[in-house]
Specification:
Helix 5 packs antiparallel against helix 7. A hairpin with a 4-residue loop joins strand 2 and strand 3. The protein has 11 helices and 4 strands. Strands 1-4-2-3 form a 4-stranded antiparallel β-sheet, with no helix packed on it. The chain has 2 domains: 228 residues, no CATH class; 65 residues, no CATH class. The radius of gyration is 25 Å and the shape is elongated. By secondary structure, the chain is an alpha+beta fold.
């Protein structure tokens, strides 16, 4: 047993990294455990409160709102920590030179820091995703907790792990380029946020939408065309030539007599992403983020070799 434990104990620069940032790592571990325990308790209370006059659904929804917001910003926290306290602070103060005098190459120095941060971040994120999905089971499909809602999609699958790894790579690059702790922290938060915002804008472009149509004079309008649990997209009216129009061309869509006289409206249309696209979209975005993370880490080590040989 002692041999096994000694084999799992970090050594060399890995031990130094853990030792140097032990308070932050301890805080992160406590936060993850408390998050999991809190979500398990709220979910348990919700299940026990079904049918009572004062059900626990309100606390569960409040906890899920907080969890979705927190996990949405988790990649920014990772980028800020990696760029600032982990890398830029040592470059700014010059303490990294001490490690280089202990037969540690610059590459190993950086690799040890990123590996420790990466392992802790990935393990913690996986636990938090599991906690989120545990709570999501009690509110899934309700208002603000559809699979396509931004906070839910980000926090409920492997895409969050890819986001934090991408943030780690961005932090590693900016920490070396800027070499000033506070500035590097601010820049990494802004850049990571901008990249994730761009990815969020592209999310619904990875897979084609499905389009449903219905006769203009029949049914309950556009809402009835979108299947339950589907992510809604563009919607409006179709002319006899197939041209798409906005709904305001007709003040009352079910009454052709109230449409503009210069158009010939024939049907409604509605674009949507079915719930079956949840996992494909998760995996596609995960792959894109991991590829970007790999490029960022490659750039980080190239910068290191250029400056330190």
């Amino acid at each position: 047993m002692s041999t096994l434990m000694s084999g799992l104990t970090p050594k060399g620069p890995y031990w130094a990294t853990v030792r140097q940032h032990r308070r932050t790592l301890r805080f992160a571990g406590i936060a993850v455990v408390l998050g999991l325990a809190s979500m398990a308790w709220v979910r348990f209370w919700d299940s026990r409160s079904v049918g009572l006059d004062d059900p626990g659904h309100g606390p569960l929804r409040a906890a899920m709102d907080l969890a979705a917001t927190t996990l949405h910003f988790l990649p920014l926290l990772v980028a800020v920590f990696v760029a600032g306290p982990l890398i830029a602070r040592e470059l700014e103060s010059g303490t990294y030179k001490l490690a280089l005098t202990q037969s540690v190459t610059p590459t190993r120095w950086l690799a040890s820091k990123l590996l420790v941060a990466g392992v802790v971040t990935v393990v913690g994120t996986l636990v938090l995703v599991g906690a989120f999905r545990l709570g999501w089971g009690g509110v899934a499909g309700s208002f603000r907790f559809q699979w396509y809602d931004q906070g839910v999609f980000d926090a409920s699958g492997p895409v969050l792990v890819a986001h934090v790894l991408l943030a780690l790579g961005i932090g590693a690059v900016l920490g070396q380029l800027i070499r000033r702790t506070v500035v590097a922290m601010a820049a990494s938060g802004v850049v990571t946020g901008a990249v994730l915002l761009a990815l969020n804008g592209l999310r619904w472009e990875w897979l084609p939408v499905r389009t449903a149509t219905a006769d203009f004079t029949a049914g309950d309008g556009i809402v009835a065309l979108i299947p339950e649990s589907a992510a809604p997209g563009d919607s409006g009216l179709l002319t006899a030539t197939g041209e798409r129009l906005e709904g305001w061309y007709c003040s009352e869509p079910v009454n052709p007599a109230l449409c503009r006289s210069d158009v010939s409206v024939t049907s409604h249309f509605a674009d949507y992403h079915p719930v079956s696209q949840y996992w494909p979209l998760q995996l596609i975005e995960t792959g894109v983020c991991l590829a970007l993370a790999a490029l960022a880490l490659f750039a980080a080590f190239r910068i290191l070799r250029r400056r330190h040989g």
